[in-house]
């Protein structure tokens, strides 16, 4: 076994504290990499707090993981010691179902293995995430990371990046399209960057007028304050797509009214409670409301390669792992531009 240091929640609501645990030995198809940076995702906090149910404790969160390879199994051909490597939200899947066969491991019909708070495909061994110094992952779920990009700022691409890249690619958002990005946080700021890179006209919809300056710096062409009825009204029937990154409760009907005929409202943010939706928001205008979850492994690699070619990374604030709790508090208040990333050198 490989002795590993990390930060774990021992129980629901215990918060995080240092914890030593073992990772498996490097198998023939495994890659071990030492973690240099790990992004802080909103879902880390939901899960350590036991908000989603069925949590597995102790829990080491973290699924925006980058580092350098220190060992490879005897059968591994795609990685060698010294390579940069990354792992996102998944570390395995059944590989046989219709979704897996199509490279859509994120929609594995038999249940994929998430990077933490999940079970390996043996259905009994828990997985532990990236708030730790090293990780062992099957090579098929390890991504190549370019040496060209700032490594710390690359980490959030593994969740926030692919979560926004995948739906924009799926719906072929690009030149000639008017894209609204609803909410300007970790996901929203990546949605702007990808929307602009794909050639769409990008408008940020936000409750906070204070975010306009940042939205424009990130490349957005327009900005609408959603709490201003006049501004909302001026955008009725305007957009081809809305990328909805908001995970607080909000009225979908209000935003569907902003779509043109055949427009699609794409949910990547997940409010905790159900929301009322009237069919009359969809029927006139043949509109759709859809969801999207991260992306498959091949698409995640495509996204990372696209980012390397186009010099796209996340806007981050690097933190010491000891400051993870204050960082969570600031994240809850939306007080981060736009992603915290843990410098794992601070894990002693
Ligand atoms: Zn995430
Ligand atoms: Zn599957």
UniProtKB/TrEMBL annotation:
<dbReference type="InterPro" id="IPR047109">
    <property type="entry name" value="CAD-like"/>
</dbReference>
<dbReference type="Pfam" id="PF00107">
    <property type="entry name" value="ADH_zinc_N"/>
</dbReference>
<dbReference type="InterPro" id="IPR036291">
    <property type="entry name" value="NAD(P)-bd_dom_sf"/>
</dbReference>
<keyword id="KW-0560">Oxidoreductase</keyword>
<comment type="similarity">
    <text>Belongs to the zinc-containing alcohol dehydrogenase family.</text>
</comment>
<keyword id="KW-0862">Zinc</keyword>
<dbReference type="GO" id="GO:0008106">
    <property type="term" value="F:alcohol dehydrogenase (NADP+) activity"/>
</dbReference>
<feature type="domain" description="Enoyl reductase (ER)">
    <location>
        <begin position="12"/>
        <end position="342"/>
    </location>
</feature>
<keyword id="KW-0479">Metal-binding</keyword>
<dbReference type="InterPro" id="IPR013149">
    <property type="entry name" value="ADH-like_C"/>
</dbReference>
<protein>
    <submittedName>
        <fullName>Putative zinc-type alcohol dehydrogenase-like protein</fullName>
    </submittedName>
</protein>
<dbReference type="InterPro" id="IPR013154">
    <property type="entry name" value="ADH-like_N"/>
</dbReference>
<dbReference type="InterPro" id="IPR020843">
    <property type="entry name" value="ER"/>
</dbReference>
<dbReference type="Pfam" id="PF08240">
    <property type="entry name" value="ADH_N"/>
</dbReference>
<dbReference type="InterPro" id="IPR002328">
    <property type="entry name" value="ADH_Zn_CS"/>
</dbReference>
<dbReference type="GO" id="GO:0008270">
    <property type="term" value="F:zinc ion binding"/>
</dbReference>
<dbReference type="InterPro" id="IPR011032">
    <property type="entry name" value="GroES-like_sf"/>
</dbReference>
């Amino acid at each position: 076994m490989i002795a590993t240091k990390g930060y774990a929640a021992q129980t629901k609501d215990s918060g995080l504290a240092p914890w030593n645990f073992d990772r498996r030995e490097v198998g023939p198809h495994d890659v071990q990499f030492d973690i240099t940076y790990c992004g802080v995702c909103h879902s880390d906090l939901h899960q350590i707090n036991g908000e989603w149910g069925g949590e597995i404790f102790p829990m080491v969160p973290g699924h925006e993981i980058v580092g350098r390879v220190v060992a490879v199994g005897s059968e591994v051909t795609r990685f060698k010691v010294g390579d940069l490597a990354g792992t996102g939200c998944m570390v395995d899947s059944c590989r046989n179902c219709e979704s897996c066969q199509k490279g859509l491991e994120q929609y594995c019909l038999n249940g994929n293995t998430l990077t933490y708070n999940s079970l390996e495909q043996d259905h009994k061994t828990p997985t532990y995430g990236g708030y730790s110094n090293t990780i062992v992952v099957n090579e098929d779920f390890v991504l190549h990371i370019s040496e060209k990009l700032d490594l710390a700022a690359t980490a959030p691409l593994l969740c926030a990046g692919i979560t926004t890249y995948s739906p924009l690619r799926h719906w072929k958002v690009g030149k000639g399209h008017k894209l609204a990005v609803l909410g300007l946080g970790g996901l929203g700021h990546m949605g702007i960057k990808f929307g602009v890179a794909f050639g769409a006209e990008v408008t940020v919809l936000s409750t906070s007028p204070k975010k306009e300056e940042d939205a424009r710096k990130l490349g957005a062409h327009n900005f609408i304050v959603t709490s201003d009825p006049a501004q909302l009204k001026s955008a009725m029937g305007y957009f081809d797509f809305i990328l909805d990154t908001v995970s607080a409760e909000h009225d979908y009907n209000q935003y569907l009214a902003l779509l043109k005929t055949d427009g699609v409202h794409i949910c990547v943010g997940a409010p905790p409670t159900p929301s009322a939706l009237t069919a009359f928001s969809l029927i006139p205008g043949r509109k759709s409301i859809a969801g999207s979850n991260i992306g498959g492994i091949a698409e995640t690699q495509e996204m990372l390669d696209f980012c390397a070619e186009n010099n796209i990374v996340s806007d981050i604030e690097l933190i010491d792992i000891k400051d993870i709790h204050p960082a969570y508090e600031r994240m809850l208040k939306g007080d981060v531009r736009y992603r915290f990333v843990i410098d794992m050198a601070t894990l002693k």
